[in-house]
Amino acid sequence: MEDCLAKKMEITVSEAEKRTGRNAMNIQETYTAYLIETRAVESQSEGQCAPVDSLWRRYSEFELLRNYLSVTYPHIVVPPLPEKRADFVWHKLSADNMDPDFVERRRIGLENFLLRVASHPVLCQDKIFYAFLTQEGGWKEMVNDTGFQLKADSRLKALNATFRVKNPDKRFTELKHYSDELQSVISHLLRVRARVADRLYGVYKVHGNYGRVFSEWSAIEKEMGDGLQSAGHHMDVYAASIDDILEEEEHYADQLKEYLFYAEALRAVCRKHELMQYDLEMAAQDLTSKKQQCEELATGTVRTFSLKGMTSKLFGQETPEQREAKIKVLEEQIQEGEEQLKSKNLEGRDFVKSAWADIERFKEQKNHDLKEALISYAVMQISMCKKGIQVWTNAKECFSKM
Amino acid sequence: DTSLAEVNSFSPSVPISPSSMINQYKFEDGPELRDLFITVDDPESHITAIETFITYRVVTKTTRGEFDSSEYEVRRRYQDFLWLKSKLEEAHPTLIIPPLPEKFIMKGMVERFSDEFIETRRKALHKFLNRIADHPTLTFNEDFKIFLTAQAWELSSHKKQGPGLLSRMGQTVRAVASSVRGAVKNRPEMFTEMSNYMETFSQKINLLDKIAHRIYKEEREYFNEMKEYGPIHTLWSASEEDIADSLKGIASCIDRCCKATEKRMAGLSEHLLPILHEYVLYSEILMGVLKRRDQIQGELDSKVDALANKKTEKDLFSEEIGKLEDKVERANNALKTDWDRWKQNMQWDMRSSFTNVAENNLRYYEECLATWESFLASQSVDLHVEEDSEDRP
Q1: Which B residues 109-148 touch A at CB under 8 Å?
Q2: Is the pLDDT of residue B385 over 70?
Q3: Could you read off the pLDDT of B186-202 as tens digits, one per residue?
Q4: Alpha-carbon gap, residue A60 to A103, rounded angstroms
Q5: What global pTM score does this model have?
Q6: What are the structural domains of chain B?
Q7: Alpha carbons A198 and A203: distance in angstroms, whole number
Q8: Does residue A57 register a pLDDT over 90?
Q9: CB contact under 8 A, B379 and A378
Q10: Are A217 and B359 in contact (CB < 8 Å)?
């Protein structure tokens, strides 16, 4: 298998910049542009560094890229973009898209997205994706020229429609069920985590008040003064330490969020399969009814009630020539239908095969990433505990000297 | 003697005489030198036609000769404690009488007869009696002895003797009024210093009391959220295979940290909060004591002024003035000694309470650290197993 793009090319989203411009309706707007830098990976032994190429893209262009990939590769679990608007915020975090912390986290999320696509065995070979990374001008036109929008529109309509599949694939049904559960449990977790972060922030910050009051109190004490003053300093350190701790935790939340959005991508693949299955069933049904019609015309028996049959009974039968013509048309349609059904069946089998291969790949990636994320969470907690032990050991020493 | 001196880690300026030994030893530390042991427990509700009230059991064990028996058990209600406090204030106007828990105040959501309120009050009443028992002068007060030993009807009849409550209240009101008017002149420097100190101390201790309560509240809210946080991971593990164990591990870590938080909160409410509150009340008491001293001095000053204006009856006046001068000197000395003792106790109490807070936090973080580290160790084991299997061809 060809090496994926990620091995041949270094990709970073290195900067974010606020821009103002005029949008499609000629209204002035402010947006953020992201700098994508790419560099070919040369053999290190030569000691040469390839030059860096760069171009600017905004979030909406990333969205366009992802939509294109979703439509063009319906059997692939396409990596998700970082959230458009800040969600699951706790009180200190801003829900403002222009907030520098949010922009920074989004920059990291966009880089992650590009790396995920670049390391996907199928997606990394896409020309549009390559152009997104390397071709500044005319990229939008290039995407639109593929005509994916038409496919997108009809697919979108179908995806949102409700329909019943008679013989659902059990594996896909289970997978859809799993993606629903994953989505629900991760949202719940993120919501509670945000509340826990809020409360933890409160506990730490209130301790900061000790610092000020100890300092003022120490002014009137002779023996206790030093102990109070230095203990107060440690309380200030304690209160300040929560900011870094919670910022780190925000990255953990982002890792979980990625899989929250991945669940959506997973469900999309299941839905696409459902759609194909439904299509197939409809085509098979249509073929069967046409064959039946043909048989009835040929043998003259009417097995099923039809208005035409009734009217011909009431107003007289058709001429043999008319009947022959009808049969001919139907036979043509039946042949066409059988070919279409054959190709649809093939299409369906291919889809299932490649979709399932990608789903297996995704499952492994998910298990690996989430396990790593959980471990990193434990590491963060350990670091927080160690800092706490240090501060309170110092404080205890000061208190005991009071 | 030297061994006892080592146990008391106070500054060397405190004289090591037998009587001061007794008052230095904290009752929390151990009852080696004491000869009077008091406990307050077993709150009981009493319902009569007129009112509902709570009585507490007061058990006294003693080796003192002045007591007829070595053990007493009586029941007392809050009113009785109030009576005792006012008798002590009357007998020793410039001594620092320990604070009583407040009468019922609509504070927060604590109801008048809720278990929480009763328990807080019981602990404070226990503290109150023990502080009196530890006090070198107050411990030998006659009303204190009666409080500890008399049966209910005996106490009632004893209470009825002596000046009525109203007349005593009248005295106090007049005393306070006169002290406000002009007793600041002739006040020895030392007491002005005390007054300035108490003003700042009172301010700071009130702030600390509020801060500590706020911390308790924030910790409780954090605990409530954590209770919900752990189980979500368990729920998630039900839909996973490979990562189910890791998720369950995280859930159990969070639950353990949750329990550790509960312990931390309990420590705060058992030690720091009652002490800070006691000293909030103490600061009011001390300002009252300083005022009473001023008032006693005021009596002397006004008599001296009156003498300057009188031509006759000089002899009578000088005898009276002599008595008042003695009174002022006794009051000043009593207050000075008691103030030093109070400051020592305060220093000790603050040091031990805040050290206790630090220890609680250390225990909390150490427990959480152990939990997360053992989780991490379990995960690393799994990782090693995976790595080994990858190496095999």
Answers
A1: none
A2: no
A3: 788 899 999 999 999 99
A4: 14
A5: 0.83
A6: 34-153 (3.30.1520.10), 184-392 (1.20.1270.60)
A7: 9
A8: yes
A9: yes
A10: no
